[in-house]
Every structure is written in C-alpha cells, then in structure tokens.
Amino acid sequence: MKKISKLLSALVLLLCLSITVNAQKTATEWYDKGISLKEKDQFKEALEAFKKSAAIDDKNDKTFYQLGWCLNELENYNEAITALKKATVLTPDYSAAYYELGYAYKNQQKYNDAIVSYKKFIELEGEDPSGYKQLALIYNKVDKIEDAIETFKSAYFYDAEDSDLPFYIGYDYNELGKYDEAITWLNKANAIKEEFETFYELGFAYYSLKKNNEAVEAYNKSIAIKPNATAYTGLGDVYRRNFDPIKVEESIEAYQKAITLNPNAGGAYYGLGWLYNDTQKYKDAIQPLKKALDINKNNSSAYSELGYAYYMTDNNDDALKTLEKGIEIDKENALCYYYKGFVFVDQKKKKEATAVQNELAKLDKDLASKLLEKINKL
C-alpha cells in the first residue's frame, strides 16, 4: 500500500508541475502574441493578449508594462496607470514604466504626478534626453518657465541634434521677455533645421526689440517655408506698431493674408480694425473688431477700439455698452474710460463725464487731463 501511495503522490506532484509549466508556457505564448500584434499596430488585439498573459501570470513586470503601453496608445489612461504602477511595484527600477506612467498622468492633466514619474525616469536613465524633454514640457504646462528652460537645456546637453530643444528654449525666453537669449537659441534651432515656427518666434523676438528689418526678414522666411497666419499677423504688427510712419498698406495686406489663411486669427482682425480707426475709416473698423471679440471675448483693447469706432460713427448707445464691457473685462483699461468720457461729453452729461474723469485720473493722468479739457468746454 505504501508503494502505491508513494506512486500516487509522485504522479500528483508530476501532474501539478506539468500544469504549472504549461500555464507558464501559455502566459509566455500570450505575451509573445501580444508583442507580435503590437508590432503590427494592432493595439486592441495586443491588449487582449497581454491581459490573458497577466491573468495567468500576475508577477511578470514586462506584461504589465506592455499592458500600460497599449492602454496609453488607446487613450485609456486610468487603466494604463493601474497597469504601469503594478509594473513599478514588481520592479521598482523599471525606468520605461515610469516614462509611460508620466505620459498617462500628463494626458489626464495630473501634472504633479507626471513630474514625479519623469523625475524617477531621469534618476534611473540620467543620460536619456527624452525624460528631460517630457519633464520640461510639463513645466511649461504648469507655468514653471524657468524650470522648463533649465530642463530643456539638460536635454540639449545630451542631444544637441534635436531642433525641438533649442526651439523650446527660445520660445520660453520669449515668454519671459528675454529676447536676446531667445534669438541665440532660436538661431541654434535653425542651424539644425529651419522650421517656419522657429522663424516666426525669431520674428517676434526681433519685433519686441524693435529690430524691424530683422523682424520682417524672419517673418518672411517663415512664410517662405510655409505660409501661416502667425507670421503674417506678426508682419502686420511690425508695420503697424514699430514703423514711423506706419506702413499702412503693407500692414493691411499682411493682416488680410493672415485672415485668409486662418479665419480665426483674432490678432489680425484687431490690427485691421485698429488701422481703419487710425486712418479714420471708422465704419470699416467695426466688423473686424467685432470679429476679434467673437474670437476672444477677453481682448480688452478690442473693446476700446470698437467703442471708439461706434462713437465716431455717432452710435453712442453701442459705444457705451462696448466700453463698459471693456472696463468690466479690464478695470485698468484707460482708453475705455477715456472714450466713455467722450460719449458723456457728446451727450452733454457733465456729471457722468466728471465721474469717469475721476476714475481715469487714477490710471492715466495725461488722458484724464485731456478729457477734463473737453468737460470744461460743456
């Protein structure tokens, strides 16, 4: 009996071992199938294969990484995070999993978590520029511009051939108003690869420094690579705001081309309306300024220009409504107060005009003095 019992025990043990080996083999087969499907861009099918592999073997970090990768590709970020966190629990130094985890968090706008994940990736893969680049992009999203610049520079240190990196650095320096630094880095980007975006950022830097010829040249180079509304709007701004006298025809032409390329180019509509006001074509100014406000209801400068156009076309009711809306949007918009005072003077409402003048005096003493002269003539 003992021999039979021992024999049965051995058979049971052998059967259990056989089942375990076959199960593990099946998990491996499902994993390999998932990889094959993934390489063919069949991500839904690959996902199912990886799920079946994980159901059999829940201790394989690579399976959970691949699960998370596919879920990210399919934009299922919640489940991706769960799978990728499982991969990092199984293997705490799994750098690729932290990178994908950062991507999932970024797409859920969980930026603090994304920062932690990308920093962990950098800790593990310090010489890989991709982690620095992604971290810097997150810093931009949370308005940590200086941190973004330094992190982009770290990426550039490891990969000086990626034109995106000096472009982003130049872009961020423009955001900070450090235009000379922006020019240096944007030129580095163009030395690697000339892009229309780089030239219009370069144009903006030169425009801001009032280096008008250089700005015009940069914007035109952007347009030569790819006609785009941003460069045409910038070109119009140079001609309108920096040249003395204003290059009216050139500016109008540039704005109109911007609008043709992008019917939602709010800056071009505003610039066009401003020019029509400046050349006393007040009726022509109204429609582009209204369009600028349709595109961006918080453009307080467009309210002051539109209010002025209404006032100059004897439409005081619309002028008053528009200027009051502009003040509501921006309580420090001196021109809205100034033109509002004009309306009251025109209506011979001295008390109301004086009240506006008192508010204006807190913002702009010169404009307040000019308005007071009009009030005193009532």
Automatic annotation (TrEMBL):
Domain of life the protein comes from: Bacteria
TPR repeats: 27-60, 61-94, 95-128, 129-162, 196-229, 266-299, 300-333
Keyword Repeat: no
Keyword Ubl conjugation applies: no
SUPFAM superfamilies membership: TPR-like
Signal sequence region: 1-23
InterPro entries in UniProt: TPR-like_helical_dom_sf, TPR_rpt
Keywords: Signal, TPR repeat
Cross-referenced PROSITE patterns: TPR, TPR_REGION
UniProt protein name: Tetratricopeptide repeat protein
Species, as recorded: Ferruginibacter yonginensis
